[in-house]
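Quick start: what a row looks like.
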Amino acid sequence: MKIKINNSEKEIASSNIKDLIAELGIKANGIAIAQNNQIIPFKLWESTLISSTDNLTIIKATQGG
């Protein structure tokens, strides 16, 4: 299915957020995910389903000064 991730359309096979992160090859440490502008807590990633109308935002923490 196609969804928007960080304002770019992507074709994905995953049905939940946890699987999506693995599919995209992103490490779960240091990231936050919002589904339709609502932050999804890490403990809910596996149970949070993705639909074709979703707009996901993935934010990665960085170090800096």
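That is the whole record. The first helix runs from residue 17 to 24. Residues 32 and 59 are 5 Å apart (CA to CA).
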